[in-house]
Write a structure and sequence with these properties.
mainly alpha, about 190 residues, about 70% helix
Length: about 190
């Protein structure tokens, strides 16, 4: 098959973007539905070496938020949007590693939120946190599909990354950030 014939059979970029968004929406809605239908459990408390679960959540969520800030700064440098000159060769791999670490660090926090607390709407802050948390993982799925796709509009990846960053920061502000403002940063 010639290159021209292969290109003619390729799915249009708009359709692939819609598919990426649909996959993300499916992930977000599935988490929300599970969290809403699931009764909060008290049979498992994870601490990962911290003194208690809330301390673990605040520290890990804060680490994920810090890694997300590094993601944005490194992406801006990679895209030439910072006045620091050309990005060094190591920055691309560092950007990918920090993104993976942010995602991995967020998983124990999300697991606790979803399994032990479920989707809640007891206050505006808690509702926004529940929505942002579910949407974060949907946005992550969307971004992964976009990263793996070729021939999409150049703005697709920065928009997906910006949305992912925003949702993580909103989730952190309505949980870890709120906890720290009310109680101070917990000792590990």
């Amino acid at each position: 098959m010639t290159v021209e014939a292969a290109a003619a059979h390729e799915t249009p970029a708009g359709t692939r973007l819609l598919a990426a968004g649909a996959i993300g929406a499916l992930v977000a809605v599935s988490l929300g539905v599970y969290g809403h239908a699931h009764d909060p459990a008290s049979d498992l408390s994870i601490t990962l070496g911290f003194k208690d679960t809330i301390t673990m959540k605040v520290w890990l969520a804060s680490a994920a938020a810090l890694l997300a800030v590094l993601q944005v700064l490194s992406a801006l440098w990679l895209y030439g949007r910072l006045p620091l000159g050309r990005a060094p060769a190591w920055l691309g791999p560092a950007h990918r590693i920090s993104g993976r670490l942010a995602f991995l660090v967020s998983l124990p926090v999300a697991y606790h939120c979803l399994y032990q607390l479920a989707f809640q709407s007891s206050s505006a802050r808690v509702l926004v946190h529940s929505l942002a948390g579910c949407a974060f993982y949907g946005a992550f799925a969307t971004k992964v599909v976009i990263v793996r796709s070729r021939g999409l509009p150049g703005a697709a990846l920065p928009i997906a990354g910006g949305l992912l960053f925003t949702l993580l920061i909103v989730a952190w502000l309505t949980s870890g950030g709120w906890y720290v403002s009310e109680n101070g940063f917990p000792a590990p």
